[in-house]
Amino acid sequence: MSTTHTDPSISEATKSLLRSLDEFIEGEIEPLQRQDDNVRFFDHRREWARTDFDHGGLPRQDWQDLLREMKRRADKAGFYRHDLPIELGGNDATSLEMSIIREHLARRGLGLHNDLQDESSIVGNHPTVRLVWTFGTDEQKDELCESGIVGNGGLAFGLTEPGHGSDATWMETRAEQRGGDWVINGGKRWNSGLHAASHDLVFARTSGADGNARGITAFIVPVNTPGFRIDGYRWTFNMPTDHADVTFENVVVSNSAILGVEGEGLVIAQQFVHENRIRQAASSLGAGEHCIDLSVEYARARVTFGEPLARRQAVQWPLVELATEAEMLRALIRKTAGELDTRDHLEISDRVAMCNYRANRFCCEAADRAMQVHGGIGYSRHLPFEHIYRHHRRYRITEGSEEIQMRKVAGYLFGFAGAGKY
To answer: What is the pTM of this model?
Structure first.
């Protein structure tokens, strides 16, 4: 079971916050999850409860309404904006504290307090809001920050293309300057969040040669701009989907649509993925620990051939290996998160990559082992392991596949890459 409340390495302030979060979950969020048959959204035998299969596989409105109510209550209680700057009503939480919180919430298991498929939590993760706050003009902040927090629009993220994923410097989407405007042509895939977004953060090459990290610019594009077309949504292991294919055909935006500095868009993308990767690593760690916790509990109770499963080395040793890896991952994740708070993120990009690819792999292995320990019932949708596996399997690909992240580590290890060489 989780020991975050007694961990001597966690500050008393953070321990107090974790206790408050647990009390809030038990007092407000769990009752909300149980009322009005809301439990249907967490019964993974009934995936249709969340998914409108007749309309592109998008989230059903009643599911979205429940998430909105959860966020409203969390915001009223002072938790939802915790990671955001004080100017936006938050507490300016550090990356270290956010990694501790995300591990703790994921280790509690599946539920409305911290939903995996939708990536919604009582302590929100607001990467695009933080990008606008960091790089945006006053006008961009006024238009997009608060709306992005409360869910009345906000910003989707368009980096990946049909022919280009992790090799973003070779993207084919182009933006050409014509007079005082920019004209965007190209397309994106896995353009997440567009079903509910008012704007899309579109990365396009504006100068430089293919393969050059400089010369890519980030544009904030209203989704109702002429020539902006959503072609459909990609269905995945976990449904519903919000991953759009998008085409840009002579999409015209003004110079004021640029986020940050022209030609330096990948700096923005790097900040996005670094913050997300360390937080995702913490969530994967917590979800994997949840699988271990349930497996140990089951092995102690399940009797076969006259003895508990817990007495059999074939059951013990794989869980011992996983528990040992969890301890090492926690130390690496928290050390790296703390460094993100004090150092240039490009200096420790390799450490972030280590955390992310190892934690995501660990979670998938823990879910798989939990299925094995639980036997037939573990393979069923009556227990959470298949859902945890299906969700976290994506992170071994998205935001940089584990191969790309290992390549990043190799680049730093052998001196081919590092701060100033991106």
So the answer is: 0.93
